[in-house]
Amino acid sequence: MTTFINAYSTVVQEIPWTGPGATYFKYRSTVTGTNQEISDFQDHLNGFLGYAIDFWITQGIEYNAFIHSISQHIRETRSQYVFERDASFEPEDLKDFKEWARATNSIFFLNDGGIYNADGVNLLDPNTKKFAPIHPLSKSRSERIRTDLGKKGMSVPQSLPPVRSEMEVQLRSTQEVASRFRALVIVAHLAAAVLDGDKNTAKNIYTVMSNSPYDFTPTELAFIDTVAKESQKKFGKYGKSTQEAAVQLVWRWESATVLGWVLGKVSMDPMVLEPANVDRLTTLEENPDELYDIHRLIDTFHICDGYESTYSQRWYAVDQDVNPENSPPCV
Fold first, then answer.
1. Which of 42, 73, 93, 100 could form a disulfide with 132 if both were Cys (CB 3.0 to 4.6 A apart)?
2. How far apart are CA 202 and CA 191, in angstroms?
3. Distance CA 261, CA 246 (A)
4. Which phi and psi (to 5°) does residue 9 adopt?
């Protein structure tokens, strides 16, 4: 008789088996296969997460950092590998998977119903108090960036889970990012024009919009439609509700700056918090050839660096609001 070992990996790319014994006989992922196969796999992962949550509820275990890490691992699983081994296989035999598990950042589901790490520790057991594994690249990135932030007076605990590494993230296509970037630029500029009472700029923006596809949200489309109608009036200000919406939407400059940086169109230092590069974004909008001349994203390594830095600084800012007693002394 045999037993099955299910490995759930957060790494996007398929990683060949390198350990002793037979390789996996089944593999599926969230990025390869037909739409139906990907949908079926996602349903499976939802069921797997539901299984873990039901266990914790049944055992009366309150939500904690350990449960959060395991839940996030399942939610962010990108690949499943299924191995067949002799029925005598025990959790401690997962040591044979250790190096491969490190590369794939995997947790394992065994026939006894436990969810294990490669050390054979049952992560469902509340007494173990173990976090789900972290990819080595993710861990080294968080240590490097948080050490630098610490030198600047921002103390971020190492217990805060790091962002996923470049091996684990699924980036949208360049075309998708570019379409959203253009939409953010248009909406932010339009909102700024509304706040300035400028109707001529609003009219000019519609001409720019006709040149390329954009990815607007329903809220943004409603705002654009309202401004289009109100800008036709020669006299009078924009309506109060339109101005209130513009106050919120003008913040799209911030998001546009980040996506512009990801697309290599805007200069930005992701390691520091700085205002949106409105001048550069406005210049891009006024030069359609450059605004539409987008062919690739910057290296994923740098994107993950920027994400980790922003994520850590955001946590620090929130912590200062919630726990002001932890703020560094004023000099």
1. 73
2. 9
3. 24
4. -110, 145
- How does pLDDT run across 273-295, given as a tens digit for each residue? 788 888 888 888 777 777 778 88
For 121, which DSSP code?
-
Of residues 209 and 234, the one with the higher pLDDT is 234
Predicted model pTM: 0.84
SS3 18: coil
Give the span between the Cα atoms of 243 and 202, in whole angstroms: 13
| DSSP line for 170-203 | -PPPHHHHHHHHHHHHHHHHHHHHHHTT-HHHHH
81 DSSP β-pair partners: 7, 27
Residue-wise pLDDT tens digits, 29-62? 999 889 999 999 999 999 999 999 999 999 999 8
Would you report the helix, strand and coil content of the chain in percent, each value rounded to 5? 50, 10, 40
- CB-CB contact of 263 with 294 (8 Å): yes
Q: What are phi and psi of 49, to 5 degrees?
A: -65, -40
Confidence of residue 331 (pLDDT cuts 50, 70, 90): very low
